[in-house]
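Troubleshooting: if your tokenizer reports a length mismatch, compare your output against this known-good record of 371 residues.
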Amino acid sequence: MNPGTHTSEIKPNTPLLALLSGLAIMIGATPYLFYIRQLWLLPLLALVAIATMWISARRFRTHATVEPTAGEWISAGWGFVGYASMQSLNLIYYGIAYWIVKGIIYVTGLMDIQIDPSWAHSIGLWVSLLFALGLYVAVLELSTKLPQRLYPRLAGVRSPYYALWFRYKLWIMLAVVTGLSGLVLMVILGLHQWYWVLGGWALVFYTSFPIASMGEEREQLRAKGLKAARKLLEASGWSLSTLPPTGDPQIDPFLEEVDYLARREAERLLIGVVAAEVDWTAAASLQMAARVLQGRIPGEEEDPARMHPLLFLTSETVDDSVQLFAEREDLVAVHLPKSKVKEVLQAAADPAALKDLADSLIPYGENTHGD
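Known-good structure output:
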């Protein structure tokens, strides 16, 4: 399979993202709507999802340099079905309301008070629809993360689904076929009984949600990496701040490469944290940001201090090209694999231990001054 096409600028495939979102929403909502016999709502749900994704994807900006492969699209799409299938949790709310009303009808019947038995279905339906609206909005919000995952913000970074597909290709394809087959058979055979519908939902959910969870691992690792990098730098006496957008189109694209600006007396560092296996282009992007932003960051314009790029890599392995680039250029790359991130976060309660870790990992000691 072609690993992707490299170009200087990649724009998100908005039509495909919108189509993927609409299809996932329809698949996820099918068990619930099939059970309440309202499948006619599926096209309406899909249209709203497509419009939401279209607007979100067109606004999304990325520095990705590689188009997602077909395998990445399949993995991402079926993973999102895991979130979309949460819409069918309304089956539970329907059942709870239905049986509560059935119980009330039974008790009142013993007291010779007659209540229309159809109320159980009607009340169960309306209660579940109220929950359905909230879950649908939540799923639409989750769908806006699809562009971010398929098109990482940094150059040279692949989506988390790239390695996932090549590692578990057969399992992912089996999951897709199994989930869709169960759903199609349920609809074609008209299996409206609650246990068949619940079984169809379970097939979809349990074949798709694990893929969604694995897709989130990189984001979780990056969040921990950001926290670990902050604690290490603060232990070395650095003061960290984020850089909000300025509205200047000549500055803001480079701010996206930077997670923190670190200050210590006359020294300045531009910090980037990457939770993916990347090549030298990620390091080059951070270095370029440091050069372009020199003297152009609000509040730093008059400061003559030179800003040095410092890249934290939280992936398990580091591409040789990153280290080679760092050795030849004005950039420092610090490797923080998952085990080291855990060690740093555990040492946070012990200032002395954290300081020792910072001194061993970060080549900017207390007496080091920028050029």
